[in-house]
Amino acid sequence: MKEKETVSLLQFQSSKGIGSVRGKQLIEKFGSAWDAICWARSARHSVPPWAEILRQDGPRRRAETEFKEAQDRGYTLFGYGQAGYPRRLTEIPDPPLVLFVEGEASLAASNTLSVVGTRRMTPYGAAFCKALIEDLKAYRPTLVSGFAEGIDITVQMAAVEAGLATVACLAHGLGATYPAVHTGFRKKVVKQGALVTEFWREERPIPSHFVRRNRIIAGLSSATLVIQSASTGGSLITADLAFGYHREVYAVPGRTTDPQNKGCLELIRDHKAQLISEPQDLIDFLKWERPDSGFLDHNPTEKGAGAQGKIQTLVTEQSILLCLQKNGKMTPENVQKHLLLSNGQLMEWILRLELAGKIRTEPGNLLVLT
């Protein structure tokens, strides 16, 4: 019965005029895609247009062929309403009717975070990605992203290196790898996570596919984090979708003069996203549990509160500035080693000092006094 229903869902996908929204409505009305098709074939009077579409033989044959090829290649197929289909995707208005999956990562993990950002990533963005994964790894999250250049692939490869599961949502079928330069990363993601798409194997990446892909990124997680984004582009589309799905949205700010930060600043300004200045902020917002020790109440001291906070602020700021003055250009990693700061603490201070105009980041991910 599962095979018959999955093929029926693929038939919905293959039938022009039966999209995700209409398909979901038919399933809710008839109980399954197969029952909707059976009704369409048996109806004799006042047949609605959608039923005429489902009577056609071509889409059914194409669906059967695609299903067989997916099975032969070892892909897993999750159909809407079937066991294993991600619950969070059932909550969006236009869920993919069938997901093709290559890999083993769970699509329903409790600690799941979608992370997106610009393809034109700066050294600051790259450093924040790595600091994020370093601070999150104790919570064993699944990281969801779009396998694109820049922020996406940096987060996903950092997750792989940290031993975390990552889900790459594709804008094409599993028969291709886009961008092609990520072919070497594909095996790593499949081994430790999964590639996920709603597109049939031979479908290629076209502009409209990326928007459809973005709704899956937003829908798979309860929260989406944007790390650097221009004022237009796929990252903002994903953030807007997540906001529309009533999911949590977070954004990392940056210098107002950098084009790569304008999208994040606009999300924060328009109250669509919470500001994240360091990875610990995100952990505090999400209230995740450590898999090995139950709920963790961080109860962090309010930054800058009271005399002790002011003294600590002054000491940390001056320590970084003196370190750069003494040693010249330095990578964040070298500053961290000199001052024994955590990744999260260092990223927060880099951001503060850059916003204050006291330091800047040069090519090669080098920090330098202004």
From TrEMBL:
Pfam families: DNA_processg_A. InterPro entries: DprA, DrpA_SLOG. GO terms for biological process: DNA-mediated transformation. Coiled coil: none annotated. Residues 80-286 form the Smf/DprA SLOG domain. It comes from the Bacteria. Belongs to the DprA/Smf family. This is DNA protecting protein DprA. It comes from Aureicoccus marinus.
